[in-house]
Amino acid sequence: MNCNVFRDPKPCDGILNQDQEDQMNISGYRRCYVRSILCWVCIVLTGGLLRLVLHWWRHWYLFATCHQCPLDEADQVLIVEDYQGKHKLYHVKSVRVLNTNQLKSLLLKGYPKSSEVDDNNLQISVHFTSAQFKNCSSIRIFRCKQLVYAWDSTLNCFNKVNGLDLNVPCSYYHQQRGLTVYEQLSRRIVFGENEITVPLRDVKTLLFLEVLNPFYMFQIFSVVLWFTYDYYYYACVILLMSIFGITMSILQTKKNQDVLQKTVHNTGNAFVLDSKGVSKEFPTQTLVPGDIIEIPSSGCTMQCDAVLLSGNCILDESMLTGESVPVTKTPLPPKRDMIFDKKEHARHILFCGTKVIQTRYIGSKKVLAFVINTGNITAKGELIRSILYPPPVDYKFEQDSYKFIQFLALIACVGFIYTLITKIIRGTDPVKIAVESLDLITIVVPPALPAAMTVGRFYAQKRLKVNDIFCISPRSINVAGSINCCCFDKTGTLTEDGLDMWGVVPKSSTNQFQIPLKNVNRLPYDHFLFGMATCHSITVLNGTMMGDPLDLKMFQSTGWILEDSKDIPDNEKYGLIYPTILRQPKDFSSDTSSHIKTGLQRQSSVDDLLANVGLSQTQKSFDHGIVREFPFTSSLQRMSVITRCLSAQGFNVYCKGSPEMLQQLCRPQSLPDNYSQQLSTFAKKGYRIIALAFKALAPKINYTKVQRISREEVELNLEFLGFVILENRLKPDTTTVIHALNAAKIRTIMVTGDNILTATSVARDCGIVSPAQAVITVHADPVDLAAITNTHAHSSHTSPGDTKSTSEHYRHRQYKLQYTLDLGSKNCAPSQWKSNCNGNTVKQESNLSGNCPPSLYRLMSTNSLANGSNTSYAESIFPNSDSLASVKTVDTWTHNEAIEVDVELGTEFAQDDNWRRHYIFAMDGKTWQIVKEQFPEELGILLTRGAIYARMSPEQKQALVMELQKLDYCVAMCGDGANDCGALKVAHAGISLSETESSIASPFTSRNPTIAAVPNVIKEGRAALVTSFGIFKYMAAYSLVQFISVMILYSIDSNLTDKQYLYVDLGLISIFAFFFGKTEAFDGHLVKQVPLSSLISPTPLASLLLHLVVVTVFQVAGWFQLQQQPWFQPFQSSDEDHLGCYENYTMFAISSFQYIILAFVFSKGAPYRKPLWSNWPLCLTFILNCCIIVYLVVYPSEWVANFFQLIVPPVMSFRYVMLIYGAAAFVVHLFVESFLVEYLVFKKYQVRRDQSWTTSKQQHMRLEYNITANENWPPITEVYEPHESTDWEGGQPTYVSLGAEQSLDTQHNTFLGFFDSSDNNAHNIKQPPSTPSVEQ
């Protein structure tokens, strides 16, 4: 019976978490007694074997004992998780029924005095969304992946029980009062205790589950069989190895459980407000969503997620974000029309696991917070669940190894049937037939294979640990060997964490940019300086200033003092009306001469200064108090403060943030005409640019109103003040590592939250983009010509509002993609490029528009990817003012007639179109989101060539990694853990450079915070992968060699003796397998060719088949040559204990040589591992075993021959023939592996096939082919070609603006951009001989 969820009022199937990342299918089942009885009869008949199989696949047991039923009647549910269509995970969960009886017993247990409870008034409260608690007498629930799901009778389906953070208006939290005892318990019975649960199993359970593992079950089967076969020695060894393996596994699992349990252990008490507002102390385990708690002034560790209602808190969030910088949390604004969003309002939330260092409050008001999430649904709970239930990684090698084992098992079955038939025909004893036939299975599928497979990973993990790289997921090591694409965060990963002040570019009173000022101490006392001194979130903890490195660097450069009142206790000083006071430097005096004496010569006179800031002559103090702070959020890209000069009336707003964002928030009249040109000049040099703005609040606004005013009102119609320029230097080894990865043909991609031009500059500096490579910046512009031709092109910027609304906004608007071309430097030497940051040091190749500096062209092109047409029409865009158009990422503009532009562009493209061969794309987060949602056809192509992703949010970083994986890239992500946690988790190999708890879900963590860890991980991954391949091939080849030997001997009712088996299995195979992985990773350069990751591919299959043919030929040849000898006597089977014969000697001798030869042949060195001789234990083992075999074959002593039951041939010549067989086999196997397999099959066939665009199975290769084949795409809408410019500090700017008079007034046009003409006589304007230098 299969019910339809949409039509049937009682559905049997449903969907959990619809349209979310963790969407799963659910089906209801009820016990069927007939099926259960039949199932258990079959289990008894199969001797329990069927129950074992049903234990491995639990959903089969569900099908065997239950039948499907409506979900609201189900005893059990089957939850199917389909991960990216590649992996299916099955969860079988029991449904529990909660009722008021349980609530009553809980109430009586906790509160014995409330014995006279009216059962009719007792209700269970369950919450799904919108703060609407549903009261009911009973509810059906189940737990899956540590989350609670309850039956929602209104929607007729199971829904996740959510906290109070879903679809709730912000005003709701401020309207609530404390909960009564009944309300608390009725919620707690559904939400559970406020604890993050980690599945804890005792040793007995762990032992039972480990023994029932298929691998150990096969070993137990083998051991039992060998004991039956009287093969005691090897059986005991395997048994001991298994016991050791099981013990180690249980100890490790128990240790991991205990460590995780210790991490989440919840202790302590909290002050909870009751319904009357009285604060009472309760254990933190009793907290439920809806409680109001008091945050102690001495600080605490949060045990729940809570929204701050009053007061400020300073938190250490390093456990969650990896950022060690304290974060200031402010109260949530009580807006009715604003829906609470966990990401958008993160600066108002105290997250579980974070530490409250200090609280700030006004007067006697308490610091209160409203609990929104408890237990597993908290931020820390999500982190722990991501560790317990990681996304399944596509372990191709492991999947192929299982298929290969199945293939070996098939061979074993063929041998089993053949032996069975031949032995029956010969009338052999039935027990012997059964034992020998089953023994073939243990020969072909060696029980030690899974253990041997982990050897490579084990050694690689140890070597990584020596290099301070820790791996919590050893399976990821093999995957790291296949990496062909690396994504890097910029700040803190490619560049240093800290920033250095480069200088400031203030705006003059004439609305022009002033000369860049390197020494901030020389700034006049005006709003620009006050903005730098006050607009930050720095706090003083234990006498040390703490805060964001950028804030600290800016503030310290001003020389101002952040007041720390040591005389007032911490918990009292925040009762002051100004929580933070900023003092001007002590040497300030109204006398100008004092500035000269102290050497602090500021630019404005004091009289001018006092007039500017509206102070009278008598007011000499510029000390400021920060009255209110609006913290920085990545989605808003800004922060602001409301301050008051202590000696003046009225409040001022200072705001700092990304230049793109402040461009929208400032009044257009306050922006200099060349705002975007100035911004792009600095950004292209790789500087970090912060814009500053200011606004004076209305005089009538008092202190109370300041505390209530909304952020939107404050950050509107600001007055632009200027830019603060900071340097972000590359880490010492960044360039070396990037070049090494590029040389190895491993794609390098930058994913950053910074400006796109800064990102492009850093990408050129470190080598992600080569000096001569063209960068095409992709923009998504709205289909609105008016918006496109707008002077300030606001349409290309993010809306200042919340990201959620803008995302919806993108979705419902039509966009078209525009492409901006930056050709890079064409013939610039690497040293030039490096020293000049941007590579703009080449001379212009063609002279366009007379002597006008070559610049940008804008085309509205009809080129499309589909038709490949190259028809285009040019459109001239004239600015509305006399100045240049201010458009994002546009560097310079030349305004010509439309026809002229068309002609010029046509000739330019005809002259040089080489950039199309190897260009890359750059885009920002907004464009990425639009392309992902509205341009699915272009997405794959843009990803294939995309190298720079700027202004990316943490969610977008994660989505980017997943999209790259869909194109068949094996992706590594390297970040500092701060905003990269999501991307680190989903990447094939996440490498975190942070040691905080937030990076715990990343497979690799490096203590050395540089990207040097990336090539190390790749090298060790490649070595481990090659080792695993070698061991697997060797174990498979060994089992097939032994299979052939045994099959030949079975034909005469003989076999290898116990001691021979023991020597081969222990002396040869186990020792080779153990030392095989000790060969270290290659210490040279990474090579271009990635090692094979699939066993089911031509090379490994051809290798095994060819070696198998050689093995068979040599054994059969030896067998026939033996029978031709005059002294040969055929074996007569008489006793199982006497298997020795000439045939046994011959097969043992030849096969023993083959075991050693194959181990040697499969132990490959360069280019993935060091040479074989560097692994001296393995070399020693080869030499020792060769000597032993030669001794056994040529001249064994009598006791040795008796021990091995060797019947040595009477003539020495045949013994020497065996040595010749060994030598010949060595030559042939070596030729097969090195020439036929490595050269012909691998290099000449498979590599060419995999690297060919037409025959490659990888999607990104096919897309690359399509890009190369289409010469008319992408259609360029803007072109920027660099020209020769002098270095920033030493030249005179030339502004080119049609319709505007040329101005050579050095006082106003003192900023040197990249408008300089390569010809100083451009437009017949003569440059003045002297050039103003930048003030130092």
From TrEMBL:
It catalyses: ATP + H2O = ADP + phosphate + H(+). Residues 273-387 form the P-type ATPase A domain. The keyword Translocase applies. Residues 790-804 have a biased composition (Polar residues). GO terms for molecular function: ATP binding; ATP hydrolysis activity; ATPase-coupled monoatomic cation transmembrane transporter activity; metal ion binding; P-type ion transporter activity; polyamine transmembrane transporter activity. One of its GO terms (cellular component) is membrane. Residues 790-809, 1317-1336 are annotated as: Disordered. Residues 20-152 form the P5B-type ATPase N-terminal domain. SUPFAM superfamilies: Calcium ATPase, transduction domain A, Calcium ATPase, transmembrane domain M, HAD-like, Metal cation-transporting ATPase, ATP-binding domain N. The chain crosses the membrane at residues 33-54, 206-225, 231-251, 404-421, 441-460, 1031-1050, 1062-1081, 1101-1122, 1175-1194, 1214-1242. It is a multi-pass membrane protein. It is found in: Membrane. CDD domains: P-type_ATPase_cation. Pfam families: Cation_ATPase, E1-E2_ATPase, P5-ATPase. The keyword NAD does not apply. Belongs to the cation transport ATPase (P-type) (TC 3.A.3) family. Type V subfamily. This is Cation-transporting ATPase.
